[in-house]
Amino acid sequence: MSKQEIKIITKIVRELTLFFMLYGHHQIGIETNYESDKVTFTVRLNTIDADVLKEVKQKISRERELEIETYGWELVGDIDSKSGLEILGHLIDDLETYEDREHVVLTFIRKNRYKSKKGPRL
Predict the structure, then answer these.
(1) Does residue 120 lie within any of the structural domains?
(2) Is residue 88 domain-resident?
(3) What is the pLDDT of residues 26-78, one digit of tens each?
């Protein structure tokens, strides 16, 4: 994984945390899991307003774009976080959601476009 990819991943985590905190969530569990073919960001919330969930789904459903992959990710964190998910939508491939008895779980999936068997290049 390249240094740039590591920076993108950490900014995604930051933006997800900031977004949900701005919507009043005080208990947010975020787990990041790097695999050879994808990175998943699992967000656990006690509850989520239906309108907020709809907004998240809408903004994340964008197509990934090379320009954003190359340059635009640097803008994440430099704009209003409620609209920041729009840029994240260009960095995330899929969103899966489910609810259990205790949490609403959102799993954001970023597929690895450049597979490398090497560790991070720092």
Answers:
(1) no
(2) yes
(3) 999 999 999 989 999 999 999 999 999 998 998 888 777 766 666 655 655 55
CA atoms within 13 A on the CB side of 27: 8
Is 84 inside a domain boundary?
yes
| Element housing 87 (H / E) | helix 81-88
Q: Point out the least confidently predicted range of 23-27, 101-105, 114-118.
A: 114-118
Q: What is the mean pLDDT of residues 3-16?
A: 87
Cα angle: 49, vertex 50, 54; to 5 degrees: 120
3-state secondary structure 5-48: HHHHHHHHHHHHHHHHHHCCCCCEEEEEEECCCEEEEEEEECCC
- Contact criterion met (CB below 8 Å) for 20 and 104: no
Question: Considering its fold, how many domains does the chain have in total?
Answer: 1
Mode of pairing for the β-strands spanning 28-34 and 38-45: antiparallel
pTM of the model: 0.81
Residue 56 sits in which domain range? 3-111
Contact present, 13 and 87 (Cβ < 8 Å): no
